[in-house]
C-alpha cells in the first residue's frame, strides 16, 4: 500500500473530492492573448465593482503579444463581463484560456494524504497568485513527509502538523487578503477611486505596503469607471 500521497492536482482536485473535503471558494479567470506587440513596462489593472465585481480586469504587455484578462464569480455574467472588457479595446482575434482560482482556508490533510497548492487553496485571495505560496507549502509538505517517514507515522493526527506549519508561514497573509477582499467587494466605485487617491499619500502608501499585501496595485494607478 502507498505510504503517502501528495494531492497537488489543482483547483478541482480529484484527491480532495475523494477525501470528501468541502471545496474552497472559487473564481473563474479568463484570459485572451492577442498578436498586439507591447513592450511597455507597466501592467494595467481595472477596478470596477459594476463591471468586474469582487475582483478586477487586467492588461499585460508581453512583448510580441498582449494579455487581457478578468476574474470573477463562476457563471455567464463573468463571461459577458470578459467579452465587454475585450470590446473596450476592439479585441476580436485572440487565443482563449480559462481556469478556476481557489481561495480561502480549507483542510489540507487526511490519513496518508496531504494537499498542496491550488488543491489546498494556497492562493492569495487578492490577486489569485499561487506560485510563491505553493512553493512555500510544498516545502512544508516535504518537511512533514520526511518526519512521517522517519517516525513511520502516516495517520491524520500526525499529518495535521502540516496544516499548522504552512499556516504559520502564509496564514496571516491569506487571512488579511480575505478580509480586504470582502471589504473591497462591497465598495462602490467612488470609494475605490478615493482609496487610490489616498495611496498617493506617502504615509497611507507605506501602511498598505506593510500591512495590506497590496503590492500588486502600487506599481501603477489602476483605471476605475463610474
In short:
By secondary structure, this protein is α+β, with helices and mostly antiparallel strands. The protein has six helices and eight strands.
Question: How are the SSEs placed, and which strands pair?
Answer:
Layout lengths: L4 E3 L6 H6 L5 E10 L9 E3 L10 E5 L4 E7 L3 H13 L6 E9 L5 E2 L2 E3 L15 H21 L4 H30 L3 H10 L3 H11 L14
Keywords:
6 helices, disordered C terminus, 5-stranded antiparallel β-sheet, 226 residues, alpha+beta
What this model shows, in words?
The protein is built from six helices and eight strands; from the N terminus they run E-H-E-E-E-E-H-E-E-E-H-H-H-H. The C terminus is likely disordered. Helix 3 packs antiparallel against helix 4. The strands form two sheets. The protein has a five-stranded antiparallel β-sheet, covered by helices on one side. Strand 4 and strand 5 form a beta hairpin.
Amino acid at each position: 500500500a502507498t505510504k503517502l500521497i501528495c494531492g497537488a492536482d489543482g483547483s478541482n482536485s480529484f484527491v480532495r473530492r475523494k477525501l470528501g473535503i468541502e471545496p474552497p471558494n472559487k473564481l473563474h479567470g479568463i484570459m485572451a492573448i492577442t498578436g498586439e506587440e507591447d513592450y511597455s513596462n507597466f501592467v494595467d489593472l481595472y477596478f470596477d465593482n459594476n463591471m468586474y465585481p469582487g475582483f478586477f480586469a487586467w492588461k499585460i504587455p508581453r512583448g510580441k503579444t498582449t494579455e487581457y484578462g478578468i476574474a470573477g464569480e463562476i457563471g455567464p455574467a463573468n463571461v459577458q463581463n470578459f467579452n465587454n472588457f475585450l470590446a473596450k479595446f476592439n479585441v476580436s482575434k485572440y487565443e482563449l484560456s480559462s481556469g478556476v482560482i481557489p481561495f480561502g482556508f480549507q483542510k489540507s490533510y487526511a490519513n496518508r494524504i496531504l494537499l498542496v497548492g491550488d488543491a489546498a487553496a494556497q492562493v492569495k485571495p487578492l490577486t489569485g497568485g499561487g506560485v510563491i505560496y505553493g512553493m512555500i507549502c510544498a516545502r512544508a509538505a516535504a518537511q512533514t513527509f520526511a518526519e512521517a517517514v522517519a517516525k513511520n507515522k502516516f495517520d491524520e493526527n500526525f499529518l495535521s502538523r502540516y496544516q499548522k506549519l504552512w499556516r504559520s508561514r502564509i496564514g496571516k497573509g491569506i487571512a488579511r487578503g480575505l478580509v480586504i477582499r470582502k471589504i473591497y467587494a462591497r465598495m462602490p466605485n467612488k470609494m475605490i477611486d478615493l482609496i487610490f487617491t489616498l495611496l498617493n499619500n506617502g504615509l497611507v502608501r507605506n501602511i498598505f505596503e506593510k500591512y495590506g499585501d497590496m503590492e500588486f496595485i502600487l506599481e501603477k494607478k489602476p483605471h476605475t469607471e463610474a
